[in-house]
UniProtKB/TrEMBL annotation:
GO annotation (BP), single: inorganic cation transmembrane transport
Top-level taxonomic group: Eukaryota
Keywords: Ion transport, Potassium, Potassium transport, Transport
Cation/H(+) antiporter C-terminal domain ranges (all copies): 1-134
Listed Pfam families: CHX17_C (PF23259)
Name listed for the protein in its UniProt record: Cation/H(+) antiporter C-terminal domain-containing protein
One GO CC annotation: endomembrane system
Species assigned in the record: Linum tenue
Length: 139
């Protein structure tokens, strides 16, 4: 996916990954038809990968998803594999990967993916940290 909040979440997770006892898995959800590429997302991801390329405790996974229901299914499958998810809030951003999920959102302030992970229907003990990029105030 992408956007400022996701970039901020990635930066936070990369800083945490400097601790060798922490294992980090970066999950990148991309549209299956690959026509929604945002160049700024690619630049941020490439920079992030350069910064962590030598770290044995970091793994990168790319998952192609068609729509929101497929994203929800993937989240359900992997929720119990991790202790903590760091996700961007992505408020007001729509993408093919989350299409249709906002209608089912119980906690919109967490963003679509944060809401999926915090849902009582998920039956997981994982923790969720939702990150929102700081807004710059114009003077």
């Amino acid at each position: 996916m992408g956007g400022g909040d996701d970039h901020e979440a990635l930066c936070f997770a990369m800083r945490a990954a400097r601790e060798p006892s922490l294992r980090l898995t970066i999950l990148h959800l991309v549209p299956s038809d690959d026509d929604d590429d945002d160049m700024s997302d690619e630049v941020v991801l490439k920079e992030a990968m350069k910064g962590i390329s030598g770290l044995a405790n970091v793994r990168y996974e790319e998952h192609a998803v068609e729509d929101g229901p497929q994203t929800a299914l993937l989240v359900r499958e992997i929720a119990n594999e991790h202790d903590l998810f760091v996700v961007g809030r992505r408020h007001g951003l729509d993408s093919k990967q989350t299409m249709g999920l906002t209608e089912w959102s119980e906690f919109p302030e967490l963003g679509v993916v944060g809401d999926l992970l915090a849902s009582p229907d998920l039956e997981t003990k994982t923790s969720v940290l939702v990150v929102q990029q700081q807004k710059q105030v114009k003077k």
